[in-house]
Fold:
Amino acid sequence: MININWISIGILLFFFNSLIFLSIFLIGIKILEKFHYVKHYEKYISLFNFYLEETYDSIYKKHLINYFSKGENLNNIQIENITRIFIHSVLTNMGPIQTKIFINFFGNYDTLVINIMNYIQKRIDYDEIKKKILDQKNLIG
Structure:
């Protein structure tokens, strides 16, 4: 009976040590992954901007050019709808693998979506065609 207790304790210690080693190993992988994102930050941001710009061009042609060519400002509901369409389109264009990579890059899904929202809202606010048409309207009116 004494031998069985020592064997049981030995097995428990082995599994406990294995769990500790596995935990340290997984933490190390996460740290290396974060270091990889920092080391290649510019490449990830360039790729992210590529997806944003390509999607913006598509959304602009399908939705925004009609408003901006008439010199109309978008109301809050229209901006929210276009923002939703834009977010969905960006994530669709990225695909599931790239989306997971950017979720890890930004830390979580919400931060990724906030960055996408900020991009579309800044582009809508500072659109050059919209500014030119509104300036012309102001000069005429």
